[in-house]
């Protein structure tokens, strides 16, 4: 079994590349927008209006941009559901 030796120059190059990648990751993390208190309040009010009682928002996450095929599949499943009709309107 042979071992490959890494030269000092190669090691320094790898260290520099790792540092550049760390900076890039930190920059990408900084791009993620925060969800403001105002938006959380709107979400909580919407849920409360839907449920008819006060609601506590425990978890909120952003949805990634949706794949068109996924959206079409979801729409076809929802379209198959039978909606109840209320008489006496």
Q: Layout of helices and strands, plus pairs?
A:
Elements: H1 8-31, H2 37-51, H3 68-80
Overview of the structural elements:
The chain has a domain at 8-61. With 89 residues, the protein is mostly helical. 0% of the residues are buried. The chain starts with 7 loop residues before the first helix and ends in a 9-residue tail after the last helix. Helix content is 58%, strand content 0%. The protein has helices at 8-31, 37-51, 68-80. It has three helices and no strands. The mean pLDDT is 81.
Cα-atom radius of gyration: 26 Å
Largest sheet: none
How many H/I helices? 3
Low-confidence stretches: none
| Order of helical and strand elements | HHH
Which geometry do the CA atoms define? elongated
Integer average pLDDT: 81
Q: What quaternary form is this? A: single chain
**Helical residue percent band:** 55-70%
How many DSSP E strands?
A: 0
Strand content: under 5%
Instruction: Briefly note the structural class of the backbone.
Output: mainly alpha
Terminal Cα span: 84 Å
Give me a quick take on this structure.
With 89 residues, the protein is mainly α.
Task: Give me some keywords for this one.
single chain, 89 residues, elongated
């Amino acid at each position: 079994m042979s071992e490959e030796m890494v030269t000092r120059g190669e090691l320094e190059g790898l260290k520099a590349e790792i540092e550049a990648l760390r900076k890039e990751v930190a920059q990408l993390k900084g791009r993620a927008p925060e969800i403001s208190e105002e938006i959380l309040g709107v979400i909580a009010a919407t849920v409360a209006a839907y449920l008819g009682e006060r609601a506590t928002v425990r978890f909120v996450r952003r949805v990634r941009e949706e794949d068109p095929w996924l959206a079409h599949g979801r729409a076809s499943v929802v379209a198959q559901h039978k909606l109840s009709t209320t008489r006496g309107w």
